[in-house]
Amino acid sequence: MVRKGDAKLIRELNRSIILDIIRKQGPISRAEISKVVQISPTTVASCINALMEDSLVMESGTGVSSGGRKPILVQLNPNDRFLIGVAVNASKITIAAFNLYATVQKKISHSLRNETYSDVCDFLITRLKDFLAGFEQKDNCLGISITFQGIVDANKGVVVYNPKLNMSNVSLKDKIEAALHIPTYIDNDTNGSLLAEKGYGHYQQAKNLIYVTIGDGVGASILVNDAIYRGYLGGAGEFGHTTINFNGPVCECGNIGCLENYVSWQATQSRIEEELSQGKQSILSDVLKKKGQLTIETFHQAVLQQDPLALSIMDNIAFYLGVGLVNIINLFNPEKIIVGGELANNNPYFIQKLNEFVLKHSLETHTENFEILPSSFGDDSEVIGAASVLLHDLFHSTIR
Ligand SMILES: [Zn+2]
């Protein structure tokens, strides 16, 4: 919302619009920017001066003259400043440094089991301090951008509800800013992944897009006419807690038969172990004996090797997730649905099964030119999604 007469806000808006054009079209001249964004040459020049002072933009050579002097071109200065993206899920924290093109420069992960921390905020702050200690120029850090599963109030910087990490109404932004003195951004993980696709992925042009994530949780982010639909209190997209079976198991949210209990990695793991204990033959049986536990990676390998048990369980996940996706397709009529998350990444078999299912069961009018697609970023999608929350604010103030 632009308040008329708020000069500071307009300056910030102009700055992010100009910065975005430089990112997308640079090297570009000041005159060309003024033409493209329809902002006066004087304003463009003063914005670029400010952006150069902030080391976000640099001059780079000259362009073709249209009569007079050759124009000096400007482009993004991608590597002087950096930002930290942090993806927190139920089992691990991934911390990565990024340049302004959302390229990962350094990345580490910490496993997140109950025995590794007593308070997830304190644990996160300690790990961030360790990570930042590796950088000489901390002043060049533009900010820390964190995504969580569950319900997040992005405006207030509060994790409203995250049952897996036992968090409720935690003012994480304030806590981190007080401890590290670096601007901090927080959003839901799936919203971050959707922003990554819109900013840097293969599907930037789509204006009605849904991103579904499936891993240790299940969530959705909904882009309606190029704006994220957040709901009344920021809780939209809790796809994993849509009920598909009222005779099903009790969910951690208190309801019965939620989708998540049929398709999440935890549900999948229990199902594999149960089938093995009943004597089903599978290469996963040896893996479980040798390593003591199954990972998504070993499950994917078994699917690739066409292990009958792994394939039948993958088909079953595709069936239940497919049921949920048909409901989403018929309700929102999206242009595309991107399915990411650890269970879907590097898993073309799964994406194909989902496409077959929704094509058969959705309204015919809704599946014309429609496709379910994998994430553009594979295993890095979560952490690039985290970084994209800050980058989105830096480059596009117009889409929320
Ligand atoms: Zn639930």
UniProtKB/TrEMBL annotation:
Matching entries from InterPro entries are given as: ArsR-like_HTH (IPR011991), ATPase_NBD (IPR043129), ROK (IPR000600), WH-like_DNA-bd_sf (IPR036388), WH_DNA-bd_sf (IPR036390)
Keyword Metal-binding present in the record's keywords: the answer is no
Q: Answer whether the UniProt record assigns the keyword DNA-binding to this protein.
A: yes
Any one GO molecular-function label of the UniProt entry: DNA binding
Gene Ontology biological-process entries: D-xylose metabolic process
Which one Pfam family would you cite for this protein?
HTH_24
**What are the protein's UniProt keywords?**
Carbohydrate metabolism, DNA-binding, Xylose metabolism
Domain of life (superkingdom): Bacteria
Q: Give the family, as the similarity comment puts it.
A: Belongs to the ROK (NagC/XylR) family.
Report the function annotation for this chain. Transcriptional repressor of xylose-utilizing enzymes.
**Which named protein is this?**
Transcriptional regulator
What is the organism of origin for this protein? Lederbergia galactosidilytica
- The organism's taxonomic lineage, starting at the top: Bacteria, Bacillati, Bacillota, Bacilli, Bacillales
